């Protein structure tokens, strides 16, 4: 299937607010709180966050199923804020797939094309191509309830792709699949998107999904955007404690900046004094939180610097996870590779070591 | 300051909602049409009736009716009858549902079928047959037991109304019992409770919303009933018959309006309680899939008495309908039992044929309108947001919440004269436009048929609306959004996606609408005209004049017409299985 | 396509019905008060003989009056046939029926028509009676009633049927009969005081020569008489099972044994005897005197089909038209002296008929009915 892209798919949200009336009382809750976001054509952007953070509402605002209380939404520079959802050059893939249960697979895929009034022969060709593309050959006459979850997911995708929209919207499309299928579909969706170059907005609460598929991730929290960045930036340079905690696992250690020079700050973390790169200059005496990823820590038997007790050790094969306690602090340590195989006993006193670069500083509060 | 912002946001939200609706002209037109229709066909007549009661002439009557002992007795009679019927009918419904769902017993399919029969039978068919069986000269009371039993009055009305209306409670409670998660009872058993304790502490409390809801619905239905008290009331007078005599005997619409308001107020209050308060306290999730199989009651000391009582009632109902059927073929039922076809000749070839064709035709016209409007309102209420959504839902349900006689009086008040608009300009010969033609009484358009169709429609919308709402709330809204996302507008989505998906609910709505139209009496009794005759009215005439044979023949034919219509609807609209499920579950 | 079919069928059906209802021309809508089958026979015969498409609605007398009143601006009926003349007199007083001097009315006894204003003409005559179920009476140990007082027997509690005067002319006739009897008794007492002997009193009462104790100067029973009748009905109320809408309905109830005694027109009882209740029902008359009805006929003011209404009016007064009743066991006496009289009909000469003032009855009707509906009908029974 060859797709000729004539449209752009530049999507822009400007200061968008969506508030709902509160269930009790007369107040309002802002589900989406002044969100601004620019997605250039062809980019795969994931909205990531816990449930209730406003990511799905944001997606539905883009789709037009909800209308913003304030702000504007632009597609290729054109204001579509109040355009009807069916007039928007977008297609959405739903969490529940939302296949039409009373239609065959082929009819499902043909539905949008028929609505657009495309000639019958053309529809037939396109449906066949879409079935092929999604490896659904031979299933065209089945009903959705006769398909497996993965197959249904492919039909849902085919139904949207066949419309050749400027923007594809995904609402947690993989959350109903089992773990193995999820991994497979992940790379399939990402592969297709790359190939077709369709701007995509993908909503998920699964950080692995976000990390593995996205060009950029938008982390949302309580209706606001906490951070926008490439997966690597989000993981290694989280801008808030929330982001650090939500993406992967993190140990937080409170400390104070001892000295600061340009883009570096000196802090003592777990007894070790380190020089850490910072994005904004910090003055000496500032309270900060040091973020340490568990896999960046390793156990050492020299306990002089930071004696801690192993509360629990879990051997997981490829890695071993330890929970340490001591000095009013709990730490998670994940040892992998060969280190995973040297097992420490529970109750043993150990210490941790890490590289300077493993420490990332966040302002307190 | 904060309040100002909140208000501004609220205003903006409303604007957005309107903008959303009017983005789609079809949706907007649908909403406007539905609203206009409901206002015209039910809200306005009811308000006109209330207005009439508040008029100069009406106001003093309130004091009189509420203080005079005579009228106090009538009001008390109405309430006592309503409470008794509600209690007995709910108990019967509960019993039938419990045996159906929880007890291992034979003949369950028969009991189920018998419990559904009252839906398709005309009002007071039961009353007339009951008189033949249990009247003072009844085939059973007098013929077998030799007792001149006095069935007139409260006891007869309670029996007949309970048997006529318990179906509502049965379907309600059966649905809830089937949705009860057996895991709950298993958990209770695990905790060492015996069956009786489970029944008392788990089953009944979980069903309380259903029991209360059925009780209140039955109360409203029974105090609104007109046909049965006319036939069986004896000296036991209730508000509905009082209103009827006021209109047909004295044409005292003001007095009737005052009495109607006295009847309307408790009906509406109870309806609102039932609909909005009990609906909310429901603890049974109907959508949840029950896990495990419910444990059947097999203990003989529980099982057989329950079976015996239920089967007894089942047999009684069968006997009543058998009497009706046989009575249609004998000269004077109970007196001269020789075979005759003269009653059918009267109905089919004679005087009754006009009523038969008129009623069937008008019901057939009303049915698709009511079905579509009901489903459309359900769609708007469940899926769309707009100011006045709750109001639309309420107006849609008014057709059932307001007693039929009251709607009839409202129509007489509103539609007996054409609504003309005389344009202010035009000088000597001002132009007059008839906005609404005369719909009731003499020289009404289409011989009053339009008003009758309107009444049929508003009386039938609630069933379609409720089953539509129930069905829509079980369909993932994403399916419709998917259609819209693929470029279809609301109208196409409704036609191509929503309607096919809720076809069973639509079908049950249609069936109910047809049956309800064919059997409705109280609402149209003031609206029949020389050109338009309605079967139930004829049945009442025949029954009142004691020509039971003719009445029975009418009933038999009416039931047959409804059965044929149901078959036709099954064949044209839907699959038998799906619809049956919805009909049984929702109703 | 398949789903559109039913809609098409409905539309087609609707269209097929509309022209039939919309077309004008030779049609007639009759408001018919006697029993259903007589209405059918009359309208069918009329349609056959004149070619005028005739439909009717059967309504009891009071119901008819209420309906005419309600639809006076836009009447749906053109002619009202049957039901006690009191109703027609009440209607004429309100202008609901309009004068028509039918050429065929000449043969009718002036007593049986509005000979002054021609607002109504009598089409039949019948006497009020008691229609009793023999078996039930035996069971209750009561003889068939032969006086109004007999009906107050406590043994008959809940076993007497009569219609509601608001809807039924029959019931109003029964009420007015008691008003007249009360007026007579007042007159009689006053005449006795004046020393008149029984024969003279009877003669005076029969001639309508009153001393003014029970009747006013126009010959209408006075308020005291009306009040006495209300007292009587208040007592009778204790024995009434229910007030039906239609006057003849209690007869059927007596036939099926639901009640023991029905207060109905005697010809309706005879009709029932002919139609399956032979040997079950027995007709008796109150010896104090009984009322009777002149079945009236009138042309509705501003009715939709004035021409056809007159054709009907003329036709209904002919001997042929008045011979139709007996064919459907409606055994009222014809008013046309040339019409045949069924041997089953009650001979009015055998019955003690009261001097029934139709004019006064018609004029008092509304007030009495409203008072009855407020005071008697809704009362609970002890």
Short description:
The complex is a heterotrimer of chains A (365), B (587) and C (382). Chain A has 365 residues and is of the alpha+beta class. Chain A has helices spanning 55-63, 105-115, 120-133, 149-161, 179-196, 207-213, 231-236, 241-246; strands at 11-21, 28-39, 44-48, 70-75, 78-79, 90-93, 167-171, 199-204, 216-221, 224-229, 251-261, 264-269, 272-277, 287-292, 298-300, 308-315, 319-326, 329-336, 349-353, 360-363.
Characterise the protein shown here.
- The complex is a heterotrimer of chains A (365), B (587) and C (382).
- Chain A is 23% helix and 35% strand.
- With 365 residues, chain A is of the alpha+beta class.
- Chain A folds into two domains: 11-241, P-loop containing nucleotide triphosphate hydrolases (Rossmann fold, 3-Layer(aba) Sandwich), CATH 3.40.50; 249-363, Nucleic acid-binding proteins (OB fold (Dihydrolipoamide Acetyltransferase, E2P), Beta Barrel), CATH 2.40.50.
- A six-stranded mixed beta sheet of chain A has the order 6-7-8-3-9-10, with helices on both faces. A five-stranded antiparallel beta sheet of chain A has the order 13-12-11-14-20.
- In chain A, helix 2 (105-115) crosses helix 3 (120-133), helix 2 packs parallel to helix 4 and helix 3 crosses helix 4.
- Mean pLDDT of chain A is 89; it is low at 1-5.
- Chain B has 587 residues and is mainly alpha-helical.
- Chain B has 24 helices and four strands.
- Chain B has helices at 2-22, 25-53, 59-67, 69-102, 108-116, 125-134, 154-179, 182-190, 195-224, 227-232, 239-250, 253-281, 300-327, 342-349, 352-383, 389-401, 404-415, 449-473, 477-485, 490-501, 503-519, 535-544, 548-573, 576-585, and strands at residues 330-332, 336-339, 419-422, 432-436.
- Chain B has a two-stranded antiparallel ribbon with strand order 1-2.
- In chain B, strand 1 and strand 2 form a beta hairpin.
- In chain C, strands 1, 2, 3, 4, 5, 6, 7, 8, 9, 10 and 11 form an eleven-stranded mixed beta sheet that branches.
- Chains in contact: A-B, B-C.
């Amino acid at each position: 299937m060859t797709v000729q892209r004539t449209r752009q798919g530049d999507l822009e949200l400007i200061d968008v607010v969506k508030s709902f009336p509160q269930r009790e009382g007369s107040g309002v809750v802002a589900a989406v709180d002044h969100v601004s976001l620019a997605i250039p054509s062809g980019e795969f952007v994931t909205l990531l966050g816990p449930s209730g953070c406003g990511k799905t509402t944001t997606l539905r605002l883009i789709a037009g199923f909800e209308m913003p209380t304030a702000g504007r939404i632009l597609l290729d520079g054109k204001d579509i804020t109040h355009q009807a959802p069916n007039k928007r050059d977008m297609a959405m893939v739903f969490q529940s797939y939302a296949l039409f249960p009373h239609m065959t697979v082929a009819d499902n895929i043909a539905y949008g094309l028929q609505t657009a009034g495309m000639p019958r022969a053309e529809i037939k060709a396109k449906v066949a191509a879409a079935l092929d593309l999604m490896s659904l050959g031979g299933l065209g006459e089945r009903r959705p309830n006769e398909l497996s979850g993965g197959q249904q997911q492919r039909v849902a995708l085919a139904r949207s792709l066949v419309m050749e929209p400027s923007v594809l919207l995904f609402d947690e499309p993989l959350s109903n699949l089992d773990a193995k299928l999820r991994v497979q579909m992940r790379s399939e969706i990402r592969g297709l998107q790359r190939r077709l170059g369709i701007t995509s907005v993908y909503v998920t609460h699964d950080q692995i999904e976000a990390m593995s598929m996205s060009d950029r991730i938008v982390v949302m929290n309580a209706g606001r955007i906490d951070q926008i960045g490439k997966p690597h930036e989000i993981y290694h340079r989280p801008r808030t404690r929330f982001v650090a905690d939500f993406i992967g696992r993190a140990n937080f250690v409170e400390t104070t900046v001892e000295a600061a020079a340009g883009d570096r700050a000196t802090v003592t973390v777990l007894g070790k004094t380190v020089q850490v790169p910072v994005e904004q200059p910090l003055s000496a005496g500032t309270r900060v939180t040091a973020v340490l990823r568990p896999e960046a820590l390793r156990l050492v038997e020299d306990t002089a610097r930071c004696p801690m007790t192993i509360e629990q050790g879990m051997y997981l094969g490829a890695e071993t996870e330890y929970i340490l306690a001591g000095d009013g602090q709990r730490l998670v340590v994940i040892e992998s590779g060969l280190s995973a195989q040297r097992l420490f006993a529970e109750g043993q006193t150990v210490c941790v070591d890490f590289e300077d670069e493993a420490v990332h500083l966040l302002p307190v509060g | 300051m904060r309040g100002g912002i909140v208000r501004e946001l609220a205003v903006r939200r409303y604007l957005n909602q309107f903008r959303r609706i009017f983005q789609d002209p079809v949706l907007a037109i649908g909403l406007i049409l539905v609203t206009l229709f409901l206002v015209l066909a039910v809200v306005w007549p009811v308000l006109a009736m209330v207005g009439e009661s508040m008029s100069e002439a009406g106001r003093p009557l309130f004091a009189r009716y509420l203080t005079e002992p005579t009228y106090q007795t009538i009001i008390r009679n109405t309430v006592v009858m309503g409470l008794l019927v509600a209690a007995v009918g709910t108990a019967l419904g509960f019993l039938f549902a419990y045996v159906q769902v929880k007890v291992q017993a034979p003949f369950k399919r028969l009991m189920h079928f018998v419990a559904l029969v009252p839906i398709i039978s005309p009002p007071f068919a039961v009353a007339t047959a009951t008189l033949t069986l249990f009247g003072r000269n009844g085939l059973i009371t007098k013929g077998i037991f030799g007792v001149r039993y006095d069935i007139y009055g409260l006891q007869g009305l309670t029996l007949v109304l309970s048997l006529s209306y318990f179906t509502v409670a049965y379907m309600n409670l059966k649905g809830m019992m089937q949705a009860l998660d057996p895991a709950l009872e298993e958990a209770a058993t695990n905790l060492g409770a015996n069956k009786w304790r489970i029944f008392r502490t788990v089953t009944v409390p979980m069903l309380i919303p259903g029991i209360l809801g059925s009780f209140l619905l039955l109360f409203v239905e029974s105090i609104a009933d007109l046909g049965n008290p006319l036939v069986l009331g004896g000296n036991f007078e209730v508000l509905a018959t009082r209103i009827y005599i006021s209109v047909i005997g004295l044409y005292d619409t003001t007095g009737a309006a005052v009495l109607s308001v006295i009847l309307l107020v408790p009906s509406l209050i109870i309806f609102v309680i039932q609909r909005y308060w009990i609906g909310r306290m429901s603890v049974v999730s109907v959508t949840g899939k029950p896990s495990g199989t419910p444990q059947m009651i097999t203990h003989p000391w529980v099982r057989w008495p329950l079976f015996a009582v239920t089967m007894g009632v089942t047999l009684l109902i069968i006997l009543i309908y058998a009497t009706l059927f046989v009575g249609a073929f004998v000269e004077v039922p109970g007196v001269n039992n020789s075979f005759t076809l003269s009653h059918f000749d009267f109905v089919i070839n004679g005087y009754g044929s006009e009523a038969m064709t008129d009623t069937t035709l008008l019901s057939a016209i009303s049915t698709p309108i009511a079905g579509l409007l009901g489903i459309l309102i359900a769609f708007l209420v469940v899926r769309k947001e707009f100011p006045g959504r709750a109001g639309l839902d309420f107006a849609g349900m008014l057709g059932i919440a307001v007693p039929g006689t009251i709607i009839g009086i409202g129509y007489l008040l509103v539609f007996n004269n054409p609504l003309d608009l005389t344009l202010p300009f035009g000088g000597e010969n001002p132009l007059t436009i008839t906005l609404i033609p005369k719909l009731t009484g003499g020289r009404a358009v289409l011989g009053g048929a339009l008003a009758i169709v309107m009444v049929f429609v508003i009386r039938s919308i609630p069933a379609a609306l409720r089953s539509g709402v129930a069905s829509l709330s079980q369909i993932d809204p994403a399916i419709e959004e998917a259609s819209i996302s693929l470029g279809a507008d609301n109208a196409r989505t409704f036609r191509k996606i929503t309607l096919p998906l809720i076809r069973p609910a639509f079908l049950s709505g249609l069936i109910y609408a047809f049956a309800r139209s064919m059997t409705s009496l109280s609402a149209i009794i003031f609206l029949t005209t020389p050109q338009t005759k309605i079967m139930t009215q004829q049945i009442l005439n025949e029954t009142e004049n004691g020509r039971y044979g003719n009445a029975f023949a009418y009933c038999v034919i009416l039931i047959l017409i409804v059965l044929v219509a149901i078959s036709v609807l099954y064949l044209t609209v839907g699959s038998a299985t799906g619809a049956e499920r919805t009909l049984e579950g929702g109703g | 396509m398949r789903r559109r079919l039913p809609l098409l069928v409905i539309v087609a059906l609707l269209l097929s019905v509309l022209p039939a209802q919309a077309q004008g021309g030779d049609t007639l809508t009759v408001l018919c008060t006697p029993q259903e089958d007589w209405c059918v026979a009359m309208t069918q015969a009329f349609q056959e003989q004149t070619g005028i498409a005739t439909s009717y609605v059967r309504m009891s007398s009071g119901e008819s009056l209420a309906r005419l009143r309600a639809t006076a601006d836009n009447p749906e009926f053109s002619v009202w046939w049957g039901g006690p003349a009191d109703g027609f007199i009440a209607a004429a007083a309100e202008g609901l029926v309009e004068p028509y001097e039918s050429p065929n009315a000449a043969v009718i006894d002036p007593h049986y028509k509005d000979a002054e204003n021609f607002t109504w003409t009598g089409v039949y005559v019948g006497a009020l009676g008691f229609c009793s179920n023999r078996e039930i009476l035996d069971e209750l140990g009561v003889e068939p009633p032969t006086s109004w007082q007999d009906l107050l027997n406590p043994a008959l509690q809940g076993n007497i049927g009569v219609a509601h005067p608001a809807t039924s002319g029959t019931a109003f006739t029964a009420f007015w009969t008691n008003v007249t009897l009360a007026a007579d008794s007042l007159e009689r007492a006053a005449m006795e005081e004046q020393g008149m002997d029984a024969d003279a009193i009877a003669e005076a009462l029969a001639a309508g020569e009153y001393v003014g104790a029970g009747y006013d100067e126009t010959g209408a029973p006075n308020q005291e008489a009306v009040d006495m009748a209300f007292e009587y009905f208040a007592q009778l109320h204790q024995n009434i099972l229910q007030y039906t809408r239609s006057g003849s309905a209690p007869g059927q109830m007596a036939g099926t044994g639901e009640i023991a005694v029905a207060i109905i027109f005697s010809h309706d009882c005879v009709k029932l005897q002919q139609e399956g209740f032979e040997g079950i029902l027995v007709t008796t008359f109150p010896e104090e005197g009984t009322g009777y009805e002149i079945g009236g006929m009138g042309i509705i003011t501003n009715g939709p089909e004035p021409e056809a209404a007159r054709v009907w009016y003329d036709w209904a007064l002919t001997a042929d038209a008045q011979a139709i009743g007996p064919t459907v066991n409606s055994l009222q006496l014809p008013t046309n002296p040339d019409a045949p009289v069924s041997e089953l009909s009650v001979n009015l000469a055998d019955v003690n008929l009261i001097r029934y003032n139709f004019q006064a009855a018609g004029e008092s009707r509304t007030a009495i009915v409203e008072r009855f509906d407020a005071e008697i009908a809704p009362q609970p029974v002890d």
